Amino acid sequence: MLKKSMWYTILTIASVGFIVLAIGFYQAIIVTTAVNPQPTSKAAVPQTTPNSTKLPSKNANSFKVLLLGDSIAKGTGDENSKGFAGYLPDYFKNSTAKDILVENAGIDGLESIGLLEQLQSQKLDKTLADSDFILISIGGNDVRRILSLNDLAKEDQFKVRLDSYLANIKQTMKSLRKANPNSIVIFLGLYNPYEKANSVEDIRLLNTWNYDTQQLVEQDGKGIFIPTSDLLKFNLGRYISKDGLHPNSAGYQAISNRISKSVETIIAGS
Amino acid sequence: MTLTLYPSQIFGFLRPNGAGKTTTIRMIVGLIKPTEGSVTICGYSVAHDFVKALSNIGCIIESPDMYKYLTGMENLLQFAAMDKTITQQRIKDVVEMMGLQHRINDRASTYSLGMRQRLGIAQAIMSRPKLLILDEPTNGLDPAGMTEFRNLIRKLAYEEGMTVFVSSHLLMEIQQMCDVVSIIKQGSVIKTANVQDILHDDQIEWQLNNPEKAIALLREHWAIEAVHLKKNTISANITQHPLAKINECFIREGLALTYCSAKQSTLEDLFLDLTEGDEIV
Amino acid sequence: MFKLIENEVIKMISKKRLMFVFAILIVLITIFAYGQNQSLARTKAQLSQRMGVTATDDWRKLADQQIIDIKNRLDSPYMDEKSKSSSRVRMEQLQYNLDNNINPLEQSAAKFTTIFMQQAIFLFLPLLIIMLSSDMVSGESSSGTIKLLLVRNVPRWRILLSKYLALLILEVLVVFVSFVLAAIVSGFFFGFGGWFAPVATGFKVLAGQLDSTGVRNVPQWQYSLMVYSLAFFVAFVVGSISFMISVLVKSTASSIGIIMSTLVAGNFISFFLADWKITRYLFMVNLRLTDYLSGSFQPIEGMNMLFSVTVLLGWAIASMIISFVYFTKQDILV
Fold first, then answer.
1. Which residues of B touch C153 (CB under 8 A)?
2. Contact flag C229-A25 (C-beta cutoff 8 Å)
3. Does the domain spanning A58-269 belong to CATH 3.40.50.1110?
4. Residue A114 and residue C80: Cβ atoms within 8 Å?
């Protein structure tokens, strides 16, 4: 009668299990479909008013630089917590006597779609209109998601990602130009922060990404693409921070230096 | 086609092979839906009152299929669970009746065909059906198995009072097992009769040393025309004359009688007559 | 009815199929856990090589840094309300790790148990269920025992229903046993803890995009429960469909073949999902329900948890109807 007792055990497990699983199923449905109570009161607070300390005029005695995009624009990884916001003015000062004002709107983990939404929300329009230089660093987080995939899926996913990325950038540039048709847009290229983990194939993908980005950015007469991969390629140990992804203080300085050299004449001439 | 069956009777259903006999049986037990007409068992229609109709039936359709991975007893318990009227005692009785008590806890895959046949009958009669339907029951049984099987069936019919419905294309089987036989041809019953009535034992064969003298004696005393069959064998139809007297006369006349037998006319002869020999295998 | 279900379950036990399924589970879970263990060691080695030993051992510092980062982000006036909630959730997780001294690089039995089912839900689990369900009716047809069942004084629909309910019981059992086995086997590799660590969930799809506004943390045990419940739902659906095929087809082998190839084909078809709208109504591409929990899916216009559950439920109900209609009407010729 072993089978008989097995049957009763199974029946007990099944009945209890069924109830538990039914509860779990209900929870799963609720969690993924129910509308969560939004902290609407928070959203209503106007948090995006541009810095009022800024000079209202555009061509007075100051340069305004707006940092847009992901953690690199924001300066994450710098052990001195300065990033571009800290170093760019230092380098720009060599070429001009004007004040350099930096507005840091970088957000950690931002993807191209996030940047587009940020611009389309028009909260930044006033800041944008005031800026002489707009530094954009974006795309790293778009790419990072597909790194862990196997080669075949990667190739597929890469195309999908690149296409949507390029479409987002196109739109971003459009709404940026709507707010400010005259500023110089400095677009940072992607670099490879990993020493060994990458294959020839990965490097090809990275280059494709950068190349397509450059094509798009420089269609705009006042856009400039600043590559970073060449700068960091042999200097990973020197320029990459402890988190293995972002530039460190020295890295930010090196890139800032390169940027300032590229736009030196514009700064000096204006 | 109408068949009338009586309690405690073994009924033979004889039909040429491949002429839809199995289909008929399957319609009776509800495995196949008849395209037209209906089947009624003990007053209940199989189509409309399936449960009540089937309560009166036990059956084996063709080979006695069993769950080979279960033991004999587990097999019976499976089927017993489907009918509330079957008690533990009944299962035990049936097992003993079928003579399976020694092997009932072995796996069915280890059973011989004869044992599986008996297990099949056991599951069919557990619910004390009024009607036991056996389709080709002795397929694949050896002669000893067949004899055993016949005895079982007789026991069920005469001791348990069941009506047994045996369908077969084996003439010998029907002849040896059944009380009543129906012969079917092209969808209709062409003859239903008691097996005993069909078979006469009036054809006699003798083996003796002087066949010519014996033939002469028969013609002289009883006016019987005998036939000289083989070297020492003669055959004659003696109808109402007593065989004992004839034999006594032979011996008195000094003939050395070695063997004497009554040769039965068989169901086969009848069947061939009735169906004009066609379709039979 | 109860007796009939008992019959079916006892048959299943005696056929050893159930034991076979459990044996496969043990072997696979062990291999999977071992693999996870190996790749964990490799990841650690890689990380320490790239970022120095301190970074992997000194995870607390890193976590502290990340929390400060996130706090800064949350304070940033340019942050969307949308991305704020996921940042908040991330911060909670880091804080929990710090408070409970859990190195996020380490695996735990709870994590593994959940990941195992998330990986198994679209192919491996259905496969196990198919092994049980595809034999339930066609097995009786091919052995001829179906005749014995159908000449009882029990209507056919009850016979089939008892088989279906027995299958349902076995489905619960398989899901339950895979949970227990995964938890125990991985416990030997990674330790038995981790059931109260927070896990982010609550992703939604709005207008074809992943919406993380509602993201919040639930304890790991609750998350696992939800994953296994969805797994049971998938088991129920796949079970119903292969049960139907088992009714329609007379041989177990072809019944397994049909449903297996359908499942595998589903993996190819998912490539066309974005372009070819009709494919999203196939059951095979809707099996990855757990992805909706973890937010790890490619958002596709019109596909969300409710959609997938509805499609799957539709398939299950249709299969049941077809099974019952066909089974009660069919002629048994075997």
1. 50-52, 54-55, 82-83, 127
2. yes
3. yes
4. yes
Q: Which whole-number Å values give the CA distances from B212 to B235, B250, B255, C22, C153, in the listed order?
A: 12, 12, 11, 85, 67
Min distance A269 CA to chain C CA atoms (Å): 32
Q: How far apart are CA B6 and CA B131, in angstroms?
A: 10
Mean pLDDT, residues C278-291 taken together: 85
Query: Would you call C77 and A48 a contact, using CB atoms and an 8 Å cutoff?
Result: yes
Asked if the structure places residue C141 within a domain, the reply is yes
Q: Residue A32's closest CA among C231, C91, C236, C289?
A: C289
For residue A222, give the amino acid letter. Answer: K
C178 belongs to a structural domain: yes
The pTM assigned to this predicted structure is 0.69
Q: Given this model, what pLDDT does residue C172 score?
A: 95
Could you give the 3-state DSSP secondary structure of residue A219?
A: coil
Architecture of domain B203-263: 2-Layer Sandwich (3.30)
Domain count, chain C: 1
**Mean pLDDT highest for which of A84-93, B5-14, C208-217?**
A84-93
Size of the B and C interface in Cβ pairs below 8 Å? 73
* Cβ–Cβ gap B31/C147 under 8 Å: yes
Task: Starting at the earlier edge strand, list the strands of the sheet with B233-237.
Answer: B227-228, B233-237, B203-208, B257-263
Give the pLDDT of chain A (270 residues) as one tens digit per residue.
788 888 999 999 999 999 999 999 998 888 877 654 444 333 333 333 333 333 334 556 788 899 998 889 888 888 888 888 888 888 888 888 888 888 888 888 888 888 888 888 877 888 888 888 999 999 888 887 777 666 667 777 788 888 889 999 998 998 888 888 888 999 999 988 876 556 777 788 888 899 999 988 988 888 999 999 888 888 888 888 877 788 988 999 999 999 988 888 888 776
Q: Which residues of C touch A18 (CB under 8 A)?
A: 168, 172
Q: Nearest CA to C316 among C238, C219, C200, C204? A: C238
R_g (Cα) of chain C, nearest Å: 23
Question: How much is the pLDDT for C323?
Answer: 94
Distance CA C96, CA B7 (A): 82
Beta-carbon separation of B81 and C7 below 8 A: yes
C-alpha to C-alpha distance for B72 and B78, rounded to whole angstroms: 10
Q: Which fold has domain B10-196?
A: Rossmann fold (3.40.50)
List of chain A residues whose C-beta atoms are within 8 Å of the C-beta of residue C70: 108
| CB contacts, 8 Å: C16 with chain B | 69
Distance between B87 CA and the closest CA of chain C, angstroms = 14
A contact chains, 3+ CB pairs < 8 A: C
Q: With CB atoms and an 8 Å threshold, state whether B59 touches C144.
A: no
Residue in chain C closest to A22 (alpha carbons) equals C229
Q: Where are the domains of chain A?
A: 1-36, 58-269
Choose among C69, C230, C306: nearest Cβ to A76.
Answer: C69
User: Residue C164 belongs to what domain range?
Assistant: 2-57+107-329
Yes or no: say if B188 and B20 are a contact pair by the CB < 8 Å rule. Answer: no
Nearest chain B residue (CA) to C328: B31
Nearest residue of A to residue C204, measured between CA atoms: A32
Quick check: is C289 in a domain?
yes
pLDDT given at position A15: 92
In a domain, C74, yes or no: no
